[in-house]
Structure formats: structure tokens, C-alpha cells
Amino acid sequence: MQYIIDPPEVAVVPVVGETAMFPVRRIWCVGRNYADHAREMGHDPDREPPFFFSKPANTIVRDGSELPFPVQTNDLHHEVELVVALAKGGSNILVQDALDLVFGYAVGFDMTLRDVQGEAKKQGRPWTLSKGFDRSCPISSIAPVSRTGHPAQGRIEATIDGKTQQSGDLDQMIWSVAECLAHLSKAVKLLPGDLLMTGTPAGVSRVLPGNTLRGTCAGIGEITVTYRT
């Protein structure tokens, strides 16, 4: 096939124990999926249906990267999350079948321009740019299910310059991975290469130029990035 311009590069994530890379199609994110985080953001954590937003695939950043600090914000926040990578897809997936879609798991950061998001919300505008800006999605290597199983519990944490800012457990999710995938598949057809970020525990805080940010998830992996001064 011929193209008018060169097609974009495929966004990829390394896979633990493999030389082959995982190609990323879309990145879906679950909002307010931990009760304590919902409260710190001023919302009722009752078990309402999950809601989703997305990030472009080319916002992915690999472990160990040194990043320019985004100039469009004075309030950059970290949100550490379990990331789900899909090898299969489908529509209207049943909860009991949803984990069959999963290739593996990683840990990542949903980086957020909190001031940009807040202003957009105040004006009733979309807050896409607060979540989907360049380099807004650091993600660790993906650990295949054959190594990890399907984690339902485990410590998930974020540190800044070695100081713990977020600390929670996967069992604190309001909606499980399987439930999130089932809900999302009612709105869009999930396909191989899709990623799902599953929400963040309480403790989101400001990241400054010069900070080193590290996210860990027990049994899954870790991700470290540094923001330039």
C-alpha cells in the first residue's frame, strides 16, 4: 500500500523475558477507581458505573527516561496505576470471560496537568489535553500472565526522590480488572494491543522539575522517570 505521507511509527512497550515488543493500539484509563482517591478529589466513592477516558498511544515513555518538564502547567501530578495489556479483544465481554483477553500486566503513570484539568472542568470543556499531552504515560515492561497470574491484590506505590507519596493495594479497586474490561467492551470493541490503566490510589501530589518519580507494583514491575530542571 502507498501512503501520501510516511505512516506513524507503532508505539511499543518492552515485554519481560522477550526480545519482541508489544505493539500498542489504544490506551484506555479508568477514572476514580479507588475510594480514597475519589474522596481526595472531592467525589463520592459509591460504586457508580466506571467511566473511561483515553490517552494517545504515542504518549508512552519507557523506564529510565529523562523527560522535559511540560511547560503548559504549574501543577503536574503523578497517578500510579496497574496497566493491563490485551492480546485478544471483543465486544460485550462477560465479566467471567474478561481475563481471557489479557496478555500481561505492567505498572505505569497517568501523568496529569491538574491545573489544566481543573480549568477545563470549570468551563465545562473537555480535559483531553490535561491527560493526553506528550510523554504523559510512562509504562514499565509488560510482565506476561504466565509470570504473574492475574493479580487481585498487591502493594502499589509511587515515590518522589525516594519519599513515598502514594501507597495502596490492588484489592482496594472499586471495579476489578475483569469488571472494567467488561464495562468498557460495551462502549467500544476491544482489540489486541489495547492497554487499560486501572485507576490510582490516594496520595496524588505535585511533581517538580528535577524530581525522580518511581512507581512499583508488587509482583508486576517498576517504572522510573526523571524530570529535567
From TrEMBL:
* Keyword S-adenosyl-L-methionine assigned: no
Keywords, sorted A to Z = Hydrolase, Metal-binding
Q: Does the keyword Metal-binding apply?
A: yes
State the name under which the record lists this protein.
Fumarylpyruvate hydrolase
Q: Which GO terms describe its molecular function?
A: acetylpyruvate hydrolase activity; metal ion binding
| Xref: Gene3D superfamilies | Fumarylacetoacetase-like, C-terminal domain
Q: Which organism is it from?
A: Methylobacterium frigidaeris
Matching entries from InterPro entries are given as: Fumarylacetoacetase-like_C (IPR011234), Fumarylacetoacetase_C_sf (IPR036663)
Domain Fumarylacetoacetase-like C-terminal, chain residue ranges per copy: 27-225
